[in-house]
Amino acid sequence: MKILTGNNLETGDVVWWTGSGWSRHVADAVDVDEGGEAIAAREEGARRVNAPYVIEALETPEGPRPAHIKDRVRALGPTVRPDLTLKPADPNAGSWVI
Amino acid sequence: MYKYDQYDQAIVDARVEEFRDQVERRLSGALSEDQFKPLRLMNGLYLQLHAYMLRVAIPYGTLDSRQMRMLATIARKYDRGYGHFTTRQNIQYNWIKLADAPDILADLATVEMHAIQTSGNCIRNISSDQFAGAAAEEVADPRPWAELLRQWSTFHPEFSYLPRKFKIAVVASDQDRAAVRLHDIGLQIVRNDAGAPGFRVFVGGGMGRTPMVAPEIRSFLPTADFLSYVEAILRVYNRYGRRDNIYKARIKILVHELGAEEFTRQVEAEFPLVKALGLDAPEAEFARIAAFFADPAFEAGLADELDLADPDFAAWAKQNVHPHKTPGYAIATISLKPVGGIPGDASADQIDLMADLAERYSFNELRVTHAQNIVLPHVRKADLYALWQQLEAAGLATPNLDLVSDIIACPGLDYCSLANARSIPVAQKIARRFADLDRQRDLGELKLKISGCINACGHHHAGHIGILGVDRKGEENYQLLLGGSGAEDASLAKIVGPGFSEDGIVDAVEKAIERYRAIRQDGERFLDTYRRVGVEPFKEAIYG
């Protein structure tokens, strides 16, 4: 599947396209198929996102898993600071990245 | 320490307001990201993996307690309670909001700080010896010259759009603690036979994709020609640097392609033309700058002995304390490398504490080292024990300076958008593997440096042991390099063989180190043994 990601213009937070808006959680990302570039252009033009790009991801029961480790790090947060990730209560969250 | 005059303050304040307007226009949509990006980079604001990152300049790594406290305040007020000290003697904040950036710069400006020259193709923040003004073996204090370069280079219209970024370091000791031969320009203050000060000039060093050790192009440059000569170098580079290819645009490529002799000839031809412009600072102006770096009021007649009855203190004093030029004083290095910690990271509370300790024990002065540690340059020996006790209580007294766990590591793929692999977890695993301090001390000086990509912010080319993280089909892989040095015996580390997984690289490092232990001769460091026997015994230990 292909999913669309970028950073929030104001905060820099990593965000994922949900089909109707942007979420901080990759689990909310939807398959954009071949439409990602058009959505990216529209959303960037409307200043709802910064530097959007389309990535490959695997469909899993827990939701999309970005194919490249860089985007998995983006999806979670720094593996060396679990307290600053999106899953601060899960000390093993970093294993999802690897 | 240097203090801003009205011109310094005016240009920094004006830059804050200019950037405030630029940010407002970006948020309103008047500027696109393509238009805004070069503007934010001129103010040290990057977009990294998780958020905007702000890199704050610490000129030649020197700052006072008031400035250090402001760094802690920014960490608390605008970030997530910590900062990361970098291999360029700067500090980075990882979680900045775009709308806050102008306010942060305004806060920094109140303590004579900014984020100018921390990004872009300009002359970057000047780096120097962290022991400047304190080291026993120093020829002169290099910081007035570094400050002169700062004033000359800031907003220099001719050099604001160079072919690539440009890094200058200035030292004044035969012990090179700033890696001058791995800079675009490295300057070492020396004295000639008549006792006059001048500069050895090295040009065309660097790490990154194409590492080079800089050749010396002048063995003695009189101080009166300092700025003219540096400007002549920049002019040759600005004119002939490879703007057509980003990978060949650094001055090291120009020097390499022309050859050091021809490059030197061109600089020497340019030099009299620049000299005629009257660019060099008048003696009175240099004296004005140098006066800011006068010694603090050292006490005379202090005892030079240390009470080493406490073995933990003795271990720290032996490893992290260096001789000072003044009897009764010492230079203390605060390690930001606790076992299992993140190299270079410090919490806001720790930053505040270091500011307090500098105020109490080191005439208000601190230094940031390119090895990502903090120095208190002027501590009375009689105060070292009290200082150590307070550092120990805050987790800042790891006695591992220049040992295997004093690892330089870039932020890597945990934070950096350029990285291909994570650096910090590898550093943490190696530090844990060698956590036994007796084992570390037995190994002696061993500089281990890790970069998460070929850009080499972790200085892996200059490591006695270097590790380079690469991307192999979307997964992390680590190459092992041996034999580098960023010191006065500068050399470039070489790749040993095929790469490793994250756990595999830790094992490979241990095998290399154990081979060193087995074959070293008396007094040899890891680097000495490697230079004596070559790579083969290590290769055999690692892959055999």
Summarize this entry quickly.
The complex is a heterodimer of chains A (98) and B (544). Chain A has 98 residues and is α+β, with helices and mostly antiparallel strands. Chain A has 3 helices and 5 strands, in the order βββαββαα.
Question: Can you describe what's shown?
Answer:
The complex is a heterodimer of chains A (98) and B (544). With 98 residues, chain A is an alpha+beta fold. In chain A, 37% of the residues are buried. The mean pLDDT of chain A is 95. Chain A is globular and about 35 Å long. Chain A has helices spanning 36-45, 69-76, 94-97; strands spanning 2-7, 14-17, 22-23, 50-60, 63-66. Chain A has one domain (2-97). The longest helix of chain A is centred in the middle third of the chain and has 10 residues, at 36-45. Chain B is α+β, with helices and mostly antiparallel strands. Chain B is 36% helix and 17% strand. Chain B contains 17 helices and 20 strands. In chain B, strand 11 (321-323) and strand 12 (329-334) form a beta hairpin. The longest helix of chain B has 23 residues, at 6-28. The relative contact order of chain B is 0.10. The model of chain B has no long low-confidence stretch (mean pLDDT 97). The interface between A and B is medium-sized, with 24 and 32 residues.
